[in-house]
Amino acid sequence: MDQFLKTQWRDIAGNVKFWLITVFLGGLMGLVAILTHCLKWWQQAGLATIFGILLACAVAAAFYALKGRSPAGTRPSGPLLIQYAGYGLGVNAMWT
Predict the structure, then answer these.
(1) Which domain, by its residues, includes 30?
(2) 30 lies in the same domain as 3
């Protein structure tokens, strides 16, 4: 049973993380909407611009920090070779 649960968690972990991030960001957006409700439109636009610039700087910094690195820490040895690309053609499409 323990192995079964580990396998199930490994299969759904990405979806759980995605939904946790989605719920967190949705709540954060709701909080920002509540806090900025009393501001005038130009103040809201100014805050949105500042946060947009900060987000762009953070994404650029992350991109430049990770530039040239592969996820496993090693470079691929050659070009990608796809052996079979019949996705969505049915269960037995590869053998027909």
Answers:
(1) 1-37
(2) yes
Tell which residue, 55, 57, 29, has the closest CA to residue 44: 29
76, 70 Cβ separation under 8 angstroms: yes
**What letter represents residue 10's amino acid?**
R
CA angle centred on 60, ends 59 and 65, rounded to 5°:
100
pLDDT tens by residue, 34-78: 888 888 989 888 988 998 899 899 988 888 887 766 555 566 667
What's the 3-state SS for 1-39? CHHHHHHHHHHHHHHHHHHHHHHHHHHHHHHHHHHHCCC
Cα–Cα–Cα angle for 67, 68, 71, nearest 5°? 95
Measured between alpha carbons, how far is 8 from 71 in angstroms, rounded to an integer? 24
